[in-house]
Amino acid sequence: MEDEKELNAATELEWTFLSNHGHVLLCIAREPGIRLRDVAERVGITERAVYRIVTDLEEAGYLTRSREGRRNRYEVHTDRRLRHPVVAHNDLSALLELIRRPEPPGPSEGA
Prior knowledge:
- Helices cover 45% and strands 11% of the residues.
- The longest helix is centred in the middle third of the chain and has 13 residues.
- It is built from five helices and two strands.
- It has a two-stranded antiparallel ribbon.
- The protein is globular and about 45 Å long.
- By secondary structure, the protein is mostly helical.
- Helix 2 crosses helix 3, helix 2 packs across helix 4 and helix 3 packs across helix 4.
- The model has no long low-confidence stretch (mean pLDDT 87).
- The two termini are 26 Å apart.
């Protein structure tokens, strides 16, 4: 229930620090076998928009898609440079490392 509240709050924001491309890529990096329908739900965009973003990411060399049975599996190429000139000196692994850091333990979990 708490996750649902956070998702609803996130999708009602006027802006975020990451674009939909960044959110889609992060979902796939966390779960390479994720369905695009599930990515769409998490990011708060349509499945069609997710498909277009995945196509963009594939064409730019950030993802490779392969079939495993009836499902797609994605490989994220973390050695690719970020696209914007301000951050182009970093590769994708730097961004993912920053975002995927584990959360610090809460007060009830101890240090």
